[in-house]
Every structure is written in structure tokens, then in C-alpha cells.
Amino acid sequence: MQHVTLNNGVRMPILGFGVYQIAPERTEQAVADALEAGYRLLDTAAAYGNEEAVGRAIKAGAVPREELFVATKLWVQDAPAEDSTRRAFETSLAKLGLDHVDLYLMHQPYGDVYGQWRAMEDVNREGLAKAIGVSNFYPDRLLDLILHNEVTPAVNQIETHPFFQRAADHDLMRRHGVQHESWGGFAEGRNNLFTHPLLGEIGEAYDKSAAQVVLRWLIQRSIVSIPKSVSPDRMAQNFDVFDFALTDEQMARIATLDTGASLFFDHRDPEMVASLGGHRVNG
């Protein structure tokens, strides 16, 4: 497995397994299958409602805890957020059945962001979260957080796929030592990603699928990705991307697919702010 080294020295697998939109009753088996396929990075969140199932799969002991990199996320907290953030973190830790997580992310750039971050800095200093970061932060919000806080986020997890490649975001994160992580790497199949002629043509040269080409493209951009599946065969296929490399010409051709816009929603849209910022997740 290839790893990236975060800005605090923590090593993180470049390819992991995400459990977004996997029902709690299916999550434990899905995680067990992912661990069997070789995944060691597991990504969940309080908002997903399946942290307990992830924890049960970890507790089953198929893979020693020290070999795993476990990430979860904090939902939006109102001011003052220090106490509620701490409670939310402890709830997630209890549901996972762990004494620490390897990465704790602020899920959305809303609410009392600074209060949330101060509390996250505390759990980081105490070793309860080996690294802390953010998710869905556009460059302006990310830089503002960096400039006015002691700890620079180790990771920013953002929508990234061939149709929304985030080159400017990537460059800013690289300059400030923030690891770029992708969610929605397959664009949930939109724009016919799995049958896209360009991705398919490139894949044929290596006997790989369009999905495998996308994962390899992310890896070669040094972007962490967390594809989701409940199919063991698909999990294994997604993991089988370390035996080939795209050429510079192929990378350049994929770059032409970028539309520069989200295929899902813009976190700067006032309606989206009202929708996500007003939704609460019970601890």
C-alpha cells in the first residue's frame, strides 16, 4: 500500500474504504469484506449513522488496530462549540469502541467553526485524534482557518473526480501542507463515468476498468481516495490499482474532462448553507 505523510508526520494510506450511504445493517459486513480485500483506511462520520457498525467490524479483530487508520467526522455545532464538540467526539469514539481515532475531520464549514477547531486541537494535543482536518472547505475558508489558528488542518476532504478536478484547491493545499482527500471520486456514476469512452479507452491499454483508471489518476495526483462498495468483487477491483501507471499524455487527456463545477452542490450556495447548517446529528 502506498502512503502519504501528513503535516504532523502521521502516515495515511492513499487508498481507503468509505462507508457513506451504506446502511448500518450492511456496514459491518462491508467493512469486514474491505479489510479482507486489503483496505486499512476506514472513513466514516457521525452523520452517516454507522460508526457502531464500523466499530464492530474493527473489534472482530481480523486486522490488528495498530495496522488500521480510522477516520470519522464532526457534524455542525453552534456557538459556543467547545463543549458540544468534545461531547460529539467522545460519542463517536464510544460508538467506534476505540481509545483514539487516526483522523478527525470537521464535516462542514458551518456553525461555530473556530470553536469546533479549538476543541479539535485539544483532542489532537491529547493524542485522542492523531491528526485533525476539515472537509468541504473551499480555498478561502481553508486559508482563513490556517491563518488564525495554531494547528494547520492535516487533511481537506473535498469533492474531487475527473469532472471536478479542483486543481486550484490542490495547489493551495500543497503550498500550505494540507493533504488533499477526495470524496465522490467516481462522481456516483454521473456523466456516465463508468462507461466514459475516454476513461474506457485508457483502461483498455492496461486491462483495467474506467473506475480503476480514475483511482490511479487520483493516486498519481497524490490525492487520498475512499471508494465505497458493498460488493467484495468491486472492492477487490478498486484495490487493484498499484500495478500500472498512467502516462503524462493520459493524465493530460483526463484533465480535459474538468468542468470546474460540482456535480452535486456548492457549499457556498445560501440554500445549501441553510440546509446543511441547520441540520443536527444527535450524539
UniProtKB/TrEMBL annotation:
Domain NADP-dependent oxidoreductase: residue ranges: 21-257
The organism's place on the tree of life at top rank: Bacteria
Site feature location: Lowers pKa of active site Tyr: 73
Keyword vocabulary terms for this entry: NADP, Oxidoreductase
Residues engaged in binding substrate: 107
Pfam entry (one): Aldo_ket_red
Residues the record marks as active site: 48
UniProt GO molecular function: oxidoreductase activity, acting on the CH-OH group of donors, NAD or NADP as acceptor
Family to which this protein belongs: Belongs to the aldo/keto reductase family.
Name of the protein in question: 2,5-diketo-D-gluconic acid reductase
Organism of this sequence: Streptomyces subrutilus
